[in-house]
UniProtKB/TrEMBL annotation:
Species assigned in the record: Chondrus crispus (Carrageen Irish moss)
Region span, Disordered: 637-664
Predominant subcellular localization, coarse grouping: cytoplasm
PROSITE patterns listed in its UniProt record: IMPORTIN_B_NT (PS50166)
Keyword Transport on entry: yes
Protein name as catalogued: Importin N-terminal domain-containing protein
Location of this chain's protein in the cell: Cytoplasm; Nucleus
Pfam families: IBN_N, TPR_IPO5
Highest taxon listed in the record's lineage: Eukaryota
Length: 1166
């Protein structure tokens, strides 16, 4: 039996925690930990808390008892529990030392969760102390309330209505410290009260003006205490902004905005207060933009933000404000600029505010520039730099406005980059903003010639910046290059080839000090101008430069080496030159032996890209080495816990050595752990890619002559599969997601090999069922929304890979998984925390959209994959699943992005309900057809979702929402029965919306126009559509063909071809009488050629050498039946109109030959 330690011996052990000797402290920690494992520690610790003369010993005793008491409480006899309560509760008001009292309050509040008998005693103590005349005792009362929330916030909710009057009275107390204590207790209670149903938050709500009064009445506005108070005010106001009904918003929003604006623009408040105000304003702009505009706050905030930036213009262009110097002495001024820029960016991203923001910003900048024309050069320079910075901040949000005024904006910024009289920070800011403006133009529909002209304006300025004498400007010119080059839609033009040669020549002349930025720029060319780069006479020099940087091994060359590997990966993904591939790969192999984690990570990323793009050749040559290294990386770091900040033992082994700076040691240890985790994640991805590449024809041919190597690779993949399977239980979400995706790719590859080349398979047939079980378990059991979405996407891919019989075998299990995910707590949990700076407003699309939208999209992909694989066989399960999907989707989707994903998921699934050509379908009812069944299901869905979709199109809340809402509306109209009056009554409204979008033409979102064209085509192809509503079908098709451009990317033409095919199958005469036969034929021929090439690739190998990890990549051309329909339509056009439309195409000889081959294979006259 363990002897009971004396209070004196425990006090001595606790006192050793305060000595400056690290070894003595650690020994004391070990002794106290051993003591705490025994219930005998409770009595001496309680005695020390109540009677020891030293405040630090009383505090440490309370902390230690709080740590170990929960472990022993269940085993204590009732008299011992009563003794602890009787000792601790009276000690709270008697404790004179603040820190000791705080520790005892925390201990007592923790006891509330262990013993319900303590609640009445503590609540009575709070009431007694709150009524005391001594302000110190009143402060203690509110400290207890604050402690309640920290310890047991769920249990305290029911007592909030009783506490609310005490808190309100405390915030009106004449003594400032009492008001502050009551304020903090009020803020602590507001969070759990708002989350709980009932009368808790309504009891607090009338007293909200008092918390603002506490803040405005505080004397020292520069103090940290004022900063914390202001943070609390905005925390409560943010809860008000989330009121779904709206009355609280109308009641408080205007005064809340006024207070936030005052804090934001004031130069005499604590930085924390200004930052809190900024967070509130950013959240308000994101969640309540219409309210802001209606109140006139939006315009005032734009003007205020610009004023803050111009008032601190001297710091706007400084190198430190680019984020390179964390110890900047002018941190307050720089932070004021950053906060203002963030607010402008947030407002610009809202469609309701973007035009106002752009117009007012450009007006303010113009007036400010004009006012400083005669100012001293330094002041004028700083002002111009600040103006450029503001333009850059709003470009990403004001996409439409930047597009409309693109030439003026780019010319203004290009002139700034060329201005030799300006200071170098000003030139750098102009180039930075130029890159952001080009980035805004990247997604818009605009004639190629006009876009290339704009690209040339920006590229000329960027090249000028690369030749600037200041390295600082060179660096930012390299960083802006990508956005400019990406504006060239066609990378085969002579103009771009000439520009690429000029870029490479300029990059080669840059200082070695910015080699990282230079080689990154080469990677940009490999991504966006690969044809021009490959045809350049300097291509060999580029390859040599990359090889030279990868081969460098010095510590100072690590970043350049990593950048070179990334550039090599980008280049080889688009280059089929085997000698270049092998040179890069041979150098990348050496990086696997590097001591620097970033080099090894870059190497794994490189080989993953190689396996996905080049295929089996890389795996055959380098597979053994890469897989061996990857599996070692996976094995070596199995026990790393990224949340363990106290494990310092490995730090000294990495060279830091003993140090008294524990924070530095912990920080370095965390860096090491994070690097190793990233290495493991990339190694997992690499193994999955290599497994997938073993199914390629190139790998099989190589392995035919090297059976020993093939056997080694199979053995390594089996080993890798085992380790990756274990990682699906990892505590680290990124590793779990990577493991599930790699697991899917490994098992999927094995399934394909078992079916086609069983001698090359690396697992048993049972792996198929095991693989499905692992994915199903992960989707059902994982606690993270993002990981669940990743697992579901892998499951959808898995369903695409396995045979129809296997899909049918697992049909019930899949439906159980879908229902389980939709009903699970995982789907309803809070999204991951992002470093978005928006901690109060969970409706932000950037936060909620990332996870919830991914989950919604993934569920839709699984159902779509099942419907696609099983066709009619899945139809009997579909109505109930669709109903559950809709119910869960609308419950989960709070942001425009996730609502858009709802529409896309439902529309994608509905498309697969109509397979009247499918011969193995058994109708669900006697005499019924699948088409009729599809229309019945659609009728049930349409009444609920069609009005919502049409409103979403008109709301202009986001691109994804609008595009997918249009897509869904078109699908519903195309499948609705003629008797469904509720659907067809909405058709005039829908056609009017579609017409407005088509009339807008290139000024609108190009993808949205394509979707509108597709929706109109679906309506035209529907035999159930009422002709009296449609009007003239020829005019409608003419309108479609006028706005839908022919793209340089043939896959885009495939999308358009589908809409034309659907029209032709219903009404062929419309297709050839719209006056644009030439354009119709061009589009259809383009789609036919790409589909024909895709079919030939499929015949040559088991699968194309592409990444099969994403369901969206499963198809590059039309499906078989679509392709046959397309060729028949082309044949009818040629038969009816002769060769005239075909002769005008001016097809290249290879394309003309392919077209003839297509006709011949389909039994038509070549």
């Amino acid at each position: 039996m363990t002897p009971t330690p004396s209070a004196d011996s425990v006090a001595i052990a606790l006192s050793r925690l305060t000595v400056p000797d690290t070894n003595a402290v650690r020994q004391a920690e070990r002794n106290l930990e051993a003591l705490g494992r025994s219930p005998s520690c409770i009595e001496p610790l309680t005695h020390l808390i109540c009677s020891h003369p030293s405040p630090s010993i009383r505090q440490l005793a309370a902390v230690m008892l709080r740590r170990y008491l929960p472990d022993h409480w269940p085993s204590l006899p009732p008299p011992a529990k009563a003794s602890i309560r009787a000792a601790l509760i009276p000690r709270i008001p008697a404790e004179p030392a603040q820190l000791s009292r705080k520790a005892i309050v925390a201990l007592a509040c923790d006891l509330c969760s262990l013993d319900d008998a303590i609640w009445p005693e503590l609540l009575q103590l709070v009431a007694t102390l709150a009524a005391a005349d001594n302000p110190d005792l009143v402060v203690v009362a509110f400290a207890i309330v604050d402690g309640f929330v920290d310890a047991v916030n769920d249990l305290v909710v029911e007592h909030i209505p009783a506490l609310a009057p005490l808190l309100a009275k405390g915030m009106e107390h004449p003594v400032p410290k009492v008001r502050v204590a009551a304020f903090h207790a009020f803020v602590a209670c507001a969070g759990p009260a708002a989350m709980a149903k009932g009368d808790s938050f309504p009891a607090l709500e009338p007293h909200i003006p008092k918390i603002v009064a506490v803040a405005t009445g505080h004397q020292d506005t520069r103090s940290d205490e004022f900063g914390r108070i202001t943070c609390g005010v905005f925390e409560v106001l943010a809860l008000v902004m989330e009121d779904p009904a709206g009355p609280l918003i109308r009641k408080y929003f205007e005064s809340a905005l006024e207070f936030a604006e005052r804090m934001f623009v004031s130069t005499d408040v604590a930085p924390m207060a200004r930052a809190a105000a900024n967070e509130f304003l950013v959240g308000s702009a994101t969640v309540r933009p219409k309210h802001m505009r209606k109140l006139g706050a939006a315009l005032r905030l734009v003007q205020s933000a610009c004023k803050v930036i111009f008032d601190n213009a001297a710091f706007a262009g400084a190198p430190s404000s680019f984020g390179h110097d964390d110890d900047d002495p002018d941190e307050d001024e720089v932070n004021a600029i950053l906060l203002s820029l963030r607010l402008l960016d947030a407002m610009a991203r809202r469609p309701e505010l973007s035009k106002l923001v752009f117009t007012e910003v450009m007006s303010v900048i113009s007036r400010t520039f004009e006012a400083t024309q005669n100012a001293p050069p330094e002041h004028r320079d700083a002002t111009v730099a600040a103006g450029y910075r503001i333009i850059g901040a709003i470009c990403r949000g004001c996409t439409h406005e930047v597009t409309v005024h693109a030439r003026d904006v780019l010319t203004k910024l290009a002139n700034g980059a060329h201005d030799a009289n300006a200071g170098f920070p000003t030139r750098a800011r102009a180039i930075e903003a130029l890159g952001l403006a080009c980035e805004a133009l990247d997604d818009v529909e605009m004639p190629d010639e006009e876009l290339e002209d704009l690209a040339n304006i920006s590229l000329t300025a960027i090249l000028h910046g690369m030749r600037d004498p200041e390295l600082f400007v060179n660096r930012h010119a390299c960083m802006a290059l990508e956005a400019s080059v990406s504006l060239f839609r066609d990378d085969t033009t002579k103009q771009l080839r000439a520009r690429v040669a000029e870029i490479i020549h300029t990059l080669s002349a840059l200082s070695p000090e910015i080699s990282v930025e230079a080689i990154t720029a080469v990677g940009v060319l490999a991504e966006h101008a690969v044809s021009a780069l490959l045809s350049s006479e300097m291509f060999k020099d580029v390859v040599e430069g990359i090889v030279r940087l990868i081969s460098q091994t010095g510590k100072t060359d690590v970043h350049a080496r990593v950048a070179a590997l990334e550039a090599a990966g980008s280049l080889v993904s688009n280059c089929k030159d085997q000698s270049v591939i092998e040179r890069f790969s041979a150098q990348a192999i050496s990086c696997l032996d590097s001591d620097d984690p970033s080099c090894k990570q870059a190497a794994y990323s490189f080989f993953e890209r190689m396996a996905d793009s080049v295929g089996g050749n890389v795996v055959a040559v380098f597979g053994v080495k890469v897989l061996t290294s990857a599996i070692e990386s996976i094995e070596n770091h199995d026990t790393i816990d990224p949340t363990d900040d106290d494990d310092d033992e490995g730090v000294s082994r990495n060279g830091l050595g003993p140090s008294n700076d524990e924070d530095a040691r912990r920080e370095y240890g965390m860096y090491v752990r994070t690097s190793l985790l990233e290495e493991k994640t990339l190694a997992v991805h690499c193994v999955g890619a290599f497994a997938s590449a073993t199914t390629t024809d190139s790998f099989m041919k190589r392995m035919a002559s090297s059976p020993e190597t093939a056997a080694t690779i199979r053995s390594l993949l089996r080993s890798g599969c085992k380790h990756i399977d274990d990682l699906t239980f990892s505590f680290h979400e990124e590793i779990r997601a990577a493991a599930y995706r790699a697991h899917c790719r490994i098992i999927g590859a094995n399934v394909m090999l078992m079916a086609n080349r069983p001698e090359l398979a690396f697992g048993r047939t049972e792996l198929t069922t095991d693989g499905f079980s692992r994915l199903a378990y992960g989707a059902m059991e994982d606690s993270n929304v993002w990981v669940t979405a990743t697992v579901l996407k892998s499951l959808a891919t898995f369903i695409e890979l396995i045979s129809v019989d296997m899909v049918a075998e697992h049909k019930t299990a899949v439906t159980d998984v879908i229902r389980g995910v939709l009903a699970s707590e995982t789907a309803c949990q809070e999204p991951r925390e992002y470093d978005s700076g928006d901690e109060h407003f969970t409706d932000d699309a950037d936060i909620e959209g990332e996870d919830m939208a991914a989950l919604i999209e993934a569920v839709g992909e699984v159902v779509e994959a099942m419907a696609h694989s099983l066709r009619g066989f899945f139809a009997d399960d579909f109505p109930s699943i669709l109903s559950e999907m809709l119910e869960a989707f609308f419950k989960l989707s709070r942001s425009p992005r996730s609502r858009g994903m709802v529409f896309g998921a439902v529309a994608g699934v509905l498309l697969y309900l109509n397979f009247d050509k499918c011969t193995n379908f058994t109708p669900p009812a006697p005499g019924g057809t699948e088409e009729e069944f599809a229309r019945k299901v659609t009728d049930n869905v349409a009444a609920e979702i069609l009005p919502v979709a049409l409103n979403a199109i008109k709301s202009m809340e986001g691109k994804i929402l609008q595009r997918n809402a249009v897509f869904l509306a078109g699908v519903i109209f195309s499948k609705a029965r003629a008797s469904n009056e509720a659907v067809w009554a909405r058709l005039p409204e829908a056609l009017q919306i579609f017409q407005k979008i088509l009339v807008a033409g290139n000024a609108s979102d190009g993808a949205l126009i394509d979707n509108v064209a597709g929706a109109v085509a679906r309506i035209l192809s529907s035999k159930a559509a009422p002709r009296q509503v449609l009007g003239d079908p020829n005019a409608m098709l003419q309108a479609i063909l006028n706005v839908v451009p022919l793209h340089n990317d043939p896959t885009e033409n495939t999308t358009i071809a589908r809409t034309l095919i659907s029209v032709a199958q219903s009404n062929f005469d419309i297709l050839v009488s719209a006056g644009q036969v030439q354009k119709v034929v061009s589009c259809l021929v383009s789609a036919a050629l790409i589909s024909w090439e895709a079919q030939k690739r499929t015949e040559q190998r088991i699968r194309p050498d592409v990444d099969d990890g994403d369901l969206n990549d499963r198809m590059t051309g039309l499906e078989d039946m679509e392709f046959q329909s397309l060729v028949l339509i082309l044949g009818r056009i040629r038969e009816g109109l002769g060769d005239q439309p075909f002769s005008k195409l001016n097809l290249a000889p290879p394309d003309a030959k392919s077209l003839a081959e297509i006709f011949q294979c389909q039994g038509l006259k070549a």
